[in-house]
Amino acid sequence: MKIEYNFAFFDEGSKREIRRATLKAIAIPGYQVPFASREMPIARGWGTGGLQLTLSLVGKEDILKVIDQGSDESVNAVNIKKLIALTTGIVVTDETTEATIIQSRHRIPETPLQEDQILVLQVPIPEPLRYYEPSEYETKKLHAEHEYSGAWLMLFEQIVNYGAMSTGADHPVMVHSRYVMAPSPIPRFDNPKLNQNKALILLGAGREKKVYAVPPYTKVASLDFADYPFRVETFQDKCCRLCGAKDVFLDELLNDITGEALYQCNDTSYCLQRMNGISKE
Amino acid sequence: MKLDLVHDIQTAYRKTLASMSRPGLIKNLRDQADKVAMEIGCFNSTLVLALMLFDTEVTFKICSEHEAEMAKLINQLTYAKATELESADYILILHDSKPGDLEEAFQIARSGDLLDPHKGATLIIETDVVSNERNLTLKGPGIEKENYMDVTLNGQWVDWREEKNSEYPLGIDLIFTDREDNILCLPRTTQIIKQVVG
């Protein structure tokens, strides 16, 4: 039996709910707007928040790109793309510059985003204060009171323990000088891209039922201390083994037998584009 | 042609989203608004916004000469519930509203609380003309340097808004619609600077 789904899978009521929340999220940058998250045909924690945002946005003319940890072809990205393409009939692409909507898990593409693009980030834990405060009501109060000493203390403890801030990903940021926000588990390398970005960035957490946003040209500062400034991951003297790119986020691949470390671009579409460009020259 | 409640509303939403995320950016809903095939007491673009955002979860208030009829119509079309100014999620200030309505709406509209600032109301205000004339300068998130706007309204609305939104993140968000089906959004983060006539 072939089921005829509504355009973009959702019923219109669900889209309205997400759209109302999204407009409020843009009006209060970094603030987590609760919304009635729907059951999706993928498991919670696998990008349902991002998927719901994308489905509420998508129209017939859109071109969609979905990436998962920088890859266009990993299982999560492929399945989300399939679901959206099958229920909308829209074109999907790997090229960052071609896409009008980019849904991403854990990366912001290397190619700078443009004004007519929307970046949708999938968020597992939207609450930056959850690490030290398990109660949702309490964290809401902390946000209300602009009481973020816990977030600073978390970073301070890392410095005491390890001599540096040791957030691997999801390093908390201050948005528009008001809300501390979890930027989703993007590497620290991508945090500066949030600041004054040309594109609208929407973040969705399906399991936690929250939507939040960073409008274009909004000040986003990673939390740090005067004597311990925020630093991105460095790949000094290293470059991609495939395309030779420097100053991009590299994956480290270890050869089990020789123990040798190999580096290559995490953003596969960027890497491929560079290789195609190089081979044309 | 009839308004397509899936695709036309989606197109209108994306325009509204663009306008809300880039305050001062005027988007035109003519193509969608023209498909509204009924005689109503508000601009077609205002009705498109209502159809985009309203359902049983939503409460609204209409400020108009024909408030009762309009409230009934919007309720029948969207199932949203009419309520009073202080509790409405959306306040529609139509072009035939009384002169005092706008000020009253700015004063009484719900601005949310610190736990739930998203409960601040959204005002949808009908004006004759929305433009990018350099009467008011806009700054804030969504704006690279500065944007400009003008609306044909009693100029005091800027002060009323500033007063209402003085305790960010509390406040109200505005959507202006005009006779040409243009829309312009002002989220609470936008700062408005009046041009000084020199």
UniProtKB/TrEMBL annotation, chain A:
<dbReference type="GO" id="GO:0051539">
    <property type="term" value="F:4 iron, 4 sulfur cluster binding"/>
</dbReference>
<protein>
    <submittedName>
        <fullName>Alpha-D-ribose 1-methylphosphonate 5-phosphate C-P lyase</fullName>
        <ecNumber>4.7.1.1</ecNumber>
    </submittedName>
</protein>
<keyword id="KW-0456">Lyase</keyword>
<dbReference type="InterPro" id="IPR010306">
    <property type="entry name" value="PhnJ"/>
</dbReference>
<dbReference type="Pfam" id="PF06007">
    <property type="entry name" value="PhnJ"/>
</dbReference>
<dbReference type="GO" id="GO:0019700">
    <property type="term" value="P:organic phosphonate catabolic process"/>
</dbReference>
<dbReference type="GO" id="GO:0098848">
    <property type="term" value="F:alpha-D-ribose 1-methylphosphonate 5-phosphate C-P-lyase activity"/>
</dbReference>
From TrEMBL, chain B:
<protein>
    <submittedName>
        <fullName>Alpha-D-ribose 1-methylphosphonate 5-triphosphate synthase subunit PhnH</fullName>
        <ecNumber>2.7.8.37</ecNumber>
    </submittedName>
</protein>
<dbReference type="GO" id="GO:0061693">
    <property type="term" value="F:alpha-D-ribose 1-methylphosphonate 5-triphosphate synthase activity"/>
</dbReference>
<dbReference type="InterPro" id="IPR038058">
    <property type="entry name" value="PhnH-like_sp"/>
</dbReference>
<dbReference type="InterPro" id="IPR008772">
    <property type="entry name" value="Phosphonate_metab_PhnH"/>
</dbReference>
<keyword id="KW-0808">Transferase</keyword>
<dbReference type="Pfam" id="PF05845">
    <property type="entry name" value="PhnH"/>
</dbReference>
<dbReference type="GO" id="GO:0019634">
    <property type="term" value="P:organic phosphonate metabolic process"/>
</dbReference>
